[in-house]
Amino acid sequence: MTRVPERGFATRQVHVGGDAAHATPRATPIHLTAGFTFDAFEDAAVHFGAGDGWGYTRTGNPTVDAVERKLASLEGGTDAILLASGQAAITVALLGLLDAGSHIVCSNHIYEGTRGLLVDNLSRLGIETTFVDDIADPSAWRAAIRPETRVLFGESIANARNDVLDIAAIAAVGDETGIPLVVDNTFATPYLVRPLEHGAAIVVHSASKFLAGQGAVLGGVIVDDGAFDAARAGALFPHLVARDRDGSAGLWERHGGRARVAHLRDGVAPRFGPTPSPLNAFLIGQGAETLSLRVERQSANALAVARWLSDRPEVLSVDHAGLPTHPTHHLAKRYLRGGYGSVFTLTLRGGLPAAKAFVEALQVVVHMTHLGDVRSLVLHPGTTSHAGRSAQERAAAGVHPGTLRLSIGIEDVDDLIADLAGALAAAATVDTDSLAVDVVA
Ligand SMILES: *Cc1c(COP(=O)(O)O)cnc(C)c1O
User: Fold this and answer.
1) Nearest in space to 22 (alpha carbons), one of 1, 53, 36, 52
2) Ligand 1 in contact with 112 (CB < 6 A)?
3) Separation of CA 84 and ligand 1 centre (Å)
4) 335 and 156 in contact (C-beta within 8 Å)?
């Protein structure tokens, strides 16, 4: 904007210098703005009508768009939608597919926040969930499907037992009746596995974890395969194939295979409104530029740590899919490329007192509820994420009083092992009476 010195102080403080010089920055510019000015009078109507150009950040922002294109490409999808958190991504993805009366078939081995969404929130909208415990068995998924089932949901590498999902087998079960498989790929990241290549229809992530990578921001992403098939699945999702309220062409007619993601982008995400900050989007995009390097190093470090822990007498078990002893190691070898992931659990023989002493003795590994960070993190699930569940439910989920979740970072692995050795030594000194403690208080 040109200088307007003849105008008043208050006018000048608002209008002068509001525009940036046109330049071509190497980094993605941060369009930290609620909205965008329209050049011509007609541009506003064109934007509201056909969606062309930029209008308001809740419906589109160039910084967010740049990150969406990067993440869609990394997952091998046609479109991605960036949202304010992983929970927002899961919520928006599901609300785009489900109606009151719909039913979900879900892995029983999932993030506790997702479980809460299904059992406490979506249930109140008349959406029921059946949890499958034996997630390796496709017939267990098939048996849970009802006429109202609209979604199958699982995690590529599951919380907390580290089970690797047989994505192709479960996607094939859904495909028999046109039901999409939605995969939470947070733990694996697209560097290790791209679920859409194995038949999943939608991938969701907590971008707060590995994609951002440095624990600075929250974010979530939905990636769609762009292959919605009206002939096969139109009867399950009439809102995607019907004509619009005014009788004009509906989503399927206008967008074809992209009907599902077009609905999420235009009809779900902006209505519920969990829009990411463009600043957060920028940081997620910066993080994603180093995803392969981080995940490769984190996976190598984690496997070395898991192997070392599994040989220690204080350790009862290590649930890491890269170990040949893990029940889904064969699936890890089939699906994961370039590493086995870096979030896993170990269970100490000494139960809760040993776990407490272990956490308190750690000096490099940070005690917090997060994962996928460049720094190594530890959490005691039994008293935190899984505290709301019964002791039996926790045990079935692989969460025992002595269980600790580790998220391994990019540090020098010798420093991590030395830190864990010190913590195991501290855990070994706790009162042996504690060995009798088998229930989390
Ligand atoms: C953290 C996490 C979520 C939730 O993501 P937020 O960004 O914290 O909202 C969902 N799924 C998995 C597997 C997670 O680890």
Assistant:
1) 1
2) no
3) 11
4) yes
DSSP H or E stretch at residue 131 = strand 128-132
Q: How far is the CA of 220 from the centre of ligand 1 (A)?
A: 8
Q: What ligand 1 atom has the least distance to the C-alpha of 87?
A: 9
- Report CA(214)–ligand 1 centroid distance (Å): 15
Q: Which residue owns the Cα nearest ligand 1 atom 5? A: 86
What confidence category does residue 1 fall into, taking pLDDT thresholds of 50, 70 and 90?
low
Q: Is the pTM of this model over 0.90?
A: yes
Asked if omega into 160 is within 30° of 0 (cis), the reply is yes
Whether 184 lines ligand 1, by a CB cut-off of 6 Å, is yes
**Rounded Cα gap, residues 57 and 212, in angstroms:** 21
Q: 111 in ligand 1 pocket by Cβ < 6 Å?
A: yes
Whether the predicted pLDDT of 440 surpasses 50: no
Atom of ligand 1 nearest to the CA of 187: 13
Alpha-carbon distance 283 to 213, whole Å?
Answer: 9
Euclidean distance between CA atoms 348 and 401, whole angstroms: 8
What average pLDDT does this structure show over 317-343?
98
CA of 53 from ligand 1 middle (Å) equals 32
Average pLDDT over residues 211-224: 97
Alpha-carbon dihedral sign for residues 54, 57, 59, 61: positive
Q: Name the band, by pLDDT with cuts 50, 70 and 90, for residue 433.
A: low
End-to-end CA distance of the chain: 64
Q: How confident is the model at residue 8 (pLDDT cuts 50, 70, 90)?
A: confident
Q: How far is CA 181 from CA 103, 170, 201, 214, in A?
A: 13, 7, 6, 29
